[in-house]
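Complex 114.
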Amino acid sequence: MAANCLFCKIAKGEIAAQKVFENEHVFGFVDIHSQAKIHLLFVHKKHTANINEMSGDPEAIAQMFRGIAEYTKGCELSKNGYRVVTNQGPDAGQTVFHTHFHIVGGEALGHFGR
Ligand code: 5GP
Ligand code: ZN
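Predicted structure with guanosine-5'-monophosphate bound:
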């Protein structure tokens, strides 16, 4: 837990969020400013600031993607797929510095870029 980290607090239940998934390692919840029919955020309970930092903990990465797979297999996203996005740093528009993976879908998505 990093002091004053929004997503650490959400993962611990100290700040309310619409939870969709939780296991020992991973927490999934609805993004407050949805950009698609379905827009979720998945975080690891262990704080890292970004994917570069998380890359030092391969087991956390595996746990992250196992959690995403476990959740998506059981919901409507399994039908037509979904996009996983993570933003690192200012050019990508990262605003919350607890590594998180956007899960976007529920509809056909346009190509992304600029
Ligand atoms: P980033 O821009 O860092 O990749 O993504 C941060 C995401 O967190 C944004 O999509 C934003 O809507 C979402 N977000 C920011 N504050 C909150 C919050 O308090 N609750 C929830 N559920 N999502 C949040
Ligand atoms: Zn955190």
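Residues 83 and 110 are 11 Å apart (CA to CA).
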